[in-house]
Amino acid sequence: MASIFSKIAAGEIPSYKIAENDRYYAFLDINPVAEGHTLVIPKREEDYIFDLDDDEYAGLQLFAKRVAEAIKKAMPCKRVGVAVMGLEVPHAHIHLIPINKESDMNFFGDKLSPSPERMKEIAGKIAEQM
């Protein structure tokens, strides 16, 4: 059975897309810890990021770097934090989060609930920087 992220990348489940190419997909997290919190995934489903072959892993990191650069231009932040946790969905993914201080990457605190309109606005701002 395909993961929710595979279904998102395939267009079977709607998402707030930031960028994609033939191998990777970036979209806004629907339970963000900060506005602009983006997930970057390989389209090929693999549970654990370090099980990706070297070429796919390097490509994912380079794709994520381009997305992070776009987030930094589009969202007010000092840096874009990066995290790989990957237990909640069995599909390798990278979290990119606009931060002004390290505590902005608190995955265990309250999540934001931006409106669909705000999510579209954020996705558009980041996507236009790609």
Overview of this protein structure:
There is one protein chain. The protein is 30% helix and 19% strand. The chain has 3 helices and 5 strands; from the N terminus they run αβββαββα. Strands 1-2-3-5-4 form a 5-stranded antiparallel sheet. Helix 2 crosses helix 3.
Summarize the structure.
The chain has 130 residues and is α+β, with helices and mostly antiparallel strands. It has helices at 4-9, 54-74, 116-127; strands spanning 17-20, 24-28, 38-42, 79-83, 94-99.
How does the major sheet shape up? 5 strands, antiparallel
User: What overall geometry do the principal axes of the alpha carbons give?
Assistant: globular
How do the helices and strands follow one another from N- to C-terminus? HEEEHEEH
Q: For the residues shown, what is the average pLDDT?
A: 96
Give unreliable regions as ranges: none
- Structural class call reads alpha+beta
Gyration radius (Cα, Å) is 14 Å
Instruction: Report the sheet-strand fraction.
Output: 15-25%
Could you give the distance between the termini? 32 Å
- Helix content range of the residues, please? 25-40%
Total DSSP E strands: 5
